[in-house]
Design goal:
Length: 450
Amino acid sequence: MASARGEFGSRFGFIMAAAGSAVGLGNIWGFPTQAASNGGAAFLLVYLVLAFCLAYPVLMAELIIGRHAHSNAVSALQKIAPGARSRRLGTTTGVVGFITASFILSFYAVIAGWMMAHCLAAAANLLGAPDIAAWLVNMGTTRNILFMALFMGLTVGIINGGVHDGIERWSSRLMPVLLVTMVLLVVYVLTLDGAMEGLKVYLLPDFSAAISPQLIVKALGAAFFSLSLGVGTMLVYGSYVSDKENLPVLGGLVTLIDIGIAVLAGFLVLPAMYVAQHSGVEIFNSAGALISEDTLIFTVLPALFDTMGIAGVVVSFAFFALMSIAALTSSISMLEVPVAYTIESQGWTRHRAVLLIGFAIGVMSLIILLNFDTLFGLVVSVTTRYSQPLLGFMYCLFCGWLWHRDSILQELKNGAPDVESGFFWKIWPGYIRYVCPAVIMIIFLQAIFG
């Protein structure tokens, strides 16, 4: 069954694909800018704790369910449900998951389009075409629609190739490029005047800020969003994993890569902000707070690049290329969630499913663009702050309470025969049953009621 629907050809391919799904704008844009706006190292500290203590266990729940069922999220949750009511609950959870993934991709495509436009603007400047570059960085409707459509076209093209020839092949190419580019940028930025001040903000925590309820809620949202949890992306990727693979090890590697890149991005973005301030660019508003996240990326950093001459143009190209690659590796996993469901539950061909669903999400992106002030923030908030944690809670419910523990252990033993005697199995079942759902719900209620 698994081979008929596609399977990752190697452990490296899965890790690159899953890490690519996890590593996106949430890591390279969202995490550093949220850290900058929420106490720097205090946010980093809380994020690391939540990522390891909450996000990793939920990631494992998705991977285990996915590989056990070798199917899409809806069918997988139905398969492990013990009764009619729980099967209906599984159906609802899976459907809400792929709807949420589709809405995330709809606003993601808008932001990714901006990244691609800025990348090409730097290329235009290098080629001596300043008028084209000016049009590319202008927030015009035509430009926004054009690059949103271009990004969706790239996503559709990769997913249309299937698991091995599409997702795995391109993730295995793009992720190493992303890592090398980021490391080079970090090394360069840290040599500039002002970078050390940003480094201090990032690494020296204010522990009073670390216990702020608002900071904890934002850090949880960052952890869930950056690991692509709740919407079924990791479940679907897990369904393409061979039964011979050790899932706790694979999940741990994906989590470490994701967190590592988020932390590495902080070494790039925060020092770059203070380099910009050192160069005369304003990074604080009149109230003394850091300016908004989108302004940091699309105003502060470009202004910094402008002060650096030709080197700034090259750095600008590399930076926005990095952002575009991160967006693409995440978007393909989001599109695969509704595509997998449609192929397996509705009997569509992959080509038909990819084209029609990609077109529908493109229309959703267009509606967001044409009603940007009203819809963009609303869609981001509903999907990432509320829907993803609630869906993560449901995966905890299924793995911790509804799916028989012996069945979970047997699934893990397929690739890890000694797992029962290891640390993971001694901790994870109780953790996913009691700790994760309780903490997720507490933080979720805090997000609603303040």
